[in-house]
Structure formats: C-alpha cells, structure tokens
Design goal:
By secondary structure, this protein is mostly helical. It has 11 helices and no strands. It has one domain. The chain is globular and about 45 Å long.
Length: 277
C-alpha cells in the first residue's frame, strides 16, 4: 500500500473518531447522525455531478451499501445510548476488519497472511477485555456495537466490490456518499414521523464541518479499496480506535479504566497487523 494511501487513511481515521465523539456527546444522537449524513451528502453532490459516473453494473452495490449504512447508524446510536465511546467504538470498529477480511476472502479471494491471523487474535482479546472488564459494557450496548461492526464490514465489502466494478473510483465514492447521506435522514423521518430540524449558529457550523469531513473520510476508504486489499484498508481505518480513546478521555471526560486502555491498545495492534499482512 502506498504511503499516500496510508497517510490519507490515517487522516480519515482521526476524522471518523472525531465525528463519533460528536454524536456521542449529543442529547439526540439519531438527529445528530442524520444531520451529519445530510450535510455530507450535500457536499458530495457537486462531485457526483462533475466526476465520471460509475458504471451501471456498480449501482446495485451503491444501493445495498447505503441501506447497510442506515442499519449501521441505527445500531450505533443504540449502542451509544447505553455505553461509553471508549467501549462502544473499539467493539464496533475493531470487529469490522476481522469481518471484512472474512468477507474479502469469501467474495474476492483475498486471504490474510500469518500476521493477519495474529491480528484476528489481538482484536478478539481486545474486544473481550472491553466487553467483560471491571466496568462491564451494558448488554444492549455490547450487542448493538457488535451488530454495528457487522454492518460496517458488510457495507465495506459491498463497496470494495462495487468500486472495482465501477470504472470510476472517485465517481463511485461520491455517488455512494450522496445516496447514503440522504437515505439516513430519510430513515429519521420514517422513525420519528417528522423531518430533522436543521441547526443554526455554532451547532450548525460544527455539524456541517463534521458532515463534510465524515463523507470525505469514507470516500477516501472507498477509493483506496479500488487498488488495495479490503481488509488492509479497513484495518488502517480502524486505527481511529486510539483517537476515539483520546477523545473519550479528554473531550467527554469518560473514565479511562485499565480494561478500556488494554482493550483499545490490543484492538489497535490487531488492526495494524491487518494493515501490514
């Protein structure tokens, strides 16, 4: 994997952890994630209009990926309703590279090397530490975080296959960001039976910023999967786990227990193994 791709993925990891901290800190998390998604979609529209469009054969992948992202957002919100960022985030994001690696092996024939298997062990140990440590994760939060991880893996494998069939990686990424970004607020309307209120002032500016950056962060990952192994891209993206641990301790004032720290470090070490395998 080229240094440019690695650098961009690490930057996208930090961005991703940042907007998750924003969602966790909000009082209405479904509203926050819907607004972030909406602004991300609006930011993606000009690129979707100007860039070479993806091939027709890749459009079903965009639709399926977008639906899976709705499921991910709903389970993520549920997990944050009952758990800390420092626990939910590593479980959800840490399980994804393992599942992406399995999906890539099944659907794209991308098999991990020995060090990738070490990564699987480290991720498993880290998640176990977070789930059954002294400050145990709420059962609803644990189940929801694992479900969110399964959705992450599913939509990443779908997008990995879709972007390779698209003939236009940047076009595919922008179309996917726009479609998923509008579908998530639509889910809000179906659930709440009303449209999300558009924020103004400082809160609106921060959510616009989070939305644009979150869309950019995933577009980088989708573009990277057009040329790199899906499991490696997912693993590098999930180094955001350490950023999330820092945000939870510094910004959200969540207590960083030894179990959380060991779990976050173990999961991060595991995803690094995926990245270099």
């Amino acid at each position: 994997m080229s240094p440019v791709i690695v650098t961009l993925l690490l930057a996208s990891a930090m961005i991703h952890a940042g907007w998750n901290a924003h969602v966790k800190s909000g009082t209405d998390r479904l509203w926050s994630i819907s607004i972030i998604s909406l602004f991300g979609a609006i930011a993606a529209l000009p690129f979707a209009a100007l860039l070479q469009p993806p091939a027709l054969v890749s459009l079903p992948y965009i639709l399926l990926s977008s639906l899976l992202q709705v499921g991910y957002c709903l389970f993520l919100v549920r997990a944050y309703d009952h758990g800390d960022l420092a626990q939910v985030y590593p479980i959800a994001r840490g399980s994804a590279p393992l599942l992406v690696t399995i999906g890539a092996a099944i659907f794209a024939g991308e098999l991990p090397h020995t060090i990738g298997l070490v990564g699987i062990l480290l991720v498993s140990v880290g998640i176990f530490s977070l789930a059954v440590g002294r400050y145990r994760t709420h059962t609803k939060s644990l189940v929801s975080a694992i479900a969110a991880g399964a959705f992450i893996a599913s939509y990443m494998v779908v997008d990995g296959l879709g972007v390779r069939a698209s003939g236009s990686p940047t076009g595919y990424a922008s179309w996917q960001a726009a479609f998923a970004g509008f579908l998530i607020p639509l889910a809000f309307i179906v659930i709440r039976r009303k449209a999300p209120v558009i924020p103004t002032g400082k809160e609106g500016a921060s959510l616009i910023f989070a939305g644009v950056l979150s869309a950019l962060a995933y577009c980088v990952a989708v573009w990277a999967m057009s040329d790199a192994k899906m499991g490696a891209v997912s693993a590098l993206r999930e180094t955001s786990i350490l950023f999330a641990a820092l945000f939870s301790a510094l910004a959200l004032r969540e207590k960083m227990t030894p179990g959380k720290l060991i779990g976050a470090v173990s999961v991060t070490a595991g995803v690094v193994c995926f990245a270099i395998s």
